[in-house]
Amino acid sequence: MDAFSFGGGIQSVAVMVLMARGDVPRAPLLFANVGEDSEWPGTLTYYATEVQPYAERHGLDLQTVRRTKRDGSQPTLLEALSDDSANIPIPVRYAGGAPGKRNCTNHWKVQVVGQRLRAMGFTTKRPAVLGLGISTDEWQRAKDSRLTNVRHVFPLLDLRLSRDACIRLIETEGLPVPPKSACWFCPMKGLADWRAMQRDHPETFGRAVALERTFSARRRRRGKDAVYLSSRCQPLDVVVSPAQASMFENRSECESGYCMT
Ligand code: SF4
Q1: Is-above-0.85 flag for pTM?
Q2: Residue 40 and residue 182 in contact, taking contact as beta carbons nearer than 8 Å
């Protein structure tokens, strides 16, 4: 493995621990940070207080990488969402239920890691072997890379480790279990995630409600339908109401915050 794509969630932290223990070959851990204003705040705190000190203690090569444009600027994902454009780069839901394109994953994660690997000398002729933290319960997300200079491998699948096994490993190592690492506005959250955000982080939830309204207002000005952050295709403040409670939408589709496949 030439590098590992560090998403910041449970599976990534488990791979970091496995590297420290010598159970997975050591390789640079590349964390594609989509922006301090965009990442889940708890993930950034965990990264600073747990991941960086752990990597340093164990001599692991942890690198933060960011989207960098030709002019050298490093726009965050939230800044791109704030552009007054009809094009919304996150997978919002349209009124008919269809999800939008996930350009965010490609531009803020896949390409960013690919760029760093190119800088490390990996090319189409000599592709990088890049590890992804996919556990056995999400095996269907294990796909090869669309980049010609990258080949994917899946160390957690090789070791047959589930998400629960990853949690046990992290706890055994004396580390706290990291929070889910998806962006705070990620539309791939399940209803339970939105409800938990409203309950535990009302200020962040309020920002998500406001952002969703901004998207719809912007589209209405162009004569287009509203869009939604929830797959229920209703405004966030409506879907989290007790009347909407459901036992069928408990898990986020972006469990580890790792959305590169
Ligand atoms: S977590 Fe969601 S919003 Fe953030 S980059 Fe991934 S798919 Fe896009």
Answers
A1: yes
A2: yes
